[in-house]
Amino acid sequence: MSKSLIFRILGVGAIPKKLRPILDAEQIVVADEGMGGWLICKDVKGPKKRFIKSTQGFSGCLVVTKKRIVCFTYRKRQINIAVDDPKISKIFVGIPKEELLSVSFESSAFRDGWRGIMEFRFKTTKASEFRDVLRSFGAQPLTRADAMVRRAMPKSP
After folding, report:
1. Which CATH number goes with the domain that contains 30?
2. At 21, is the secondary structure helix, strand, or coil?
3. Secondary structure (DSSP) of 72-119
4. Is the pTM of this model over 0.70?
5. Could you list the residue range(s) of the whole structural domain that residue 137 is in?
6. Which is nearest to 105 in space by CA: 140, 138, 157?
7. pLDDT digits (tens, 9 = 90+) for 131-141
8. Is residue 157 part of a domain?
9. Is position 115 within any domain?
């Protein structure tokens, strides 16, 4: 799958240069950069933020090392979690379509004062590699039935 246009022109969505040596030292298991994708927010509320239903495109990277999972979109860190953190079991991962990786979670599990479902969809040829590695670290499988239930979940109080 081709890289996003903004990555090819400006390098936006690359693994940050300052972070690359640290990730290499942690032994990268699977990584991809310059991936186009979408951040989908469903009933997300946080300090000074509110998204009833929002979809935002991005160019980003996802890296899984033997120590952590890191995701950047437009040079902004979105996910940074140790693979031995028990919260990893709150992440749902699946492949809704070929070469499309879905990583979703309830935002309150990772950010105080937040609630609602956040989902990252990455267009990558490494979708099955990411899914398998994340599942081996404790992420939950996201099946089509799970996705339908999560969409129909009542709002948090």
Report:
1. 2.30.29.30
2. helix
3. EETTEEEEEEETT-GGGGGEEEEEEETTEEEEEEEGGGTSTT-EEEEE
4. yes
5. 5-152
6. 140
7. 999 999 999 99
8. no
9. yes
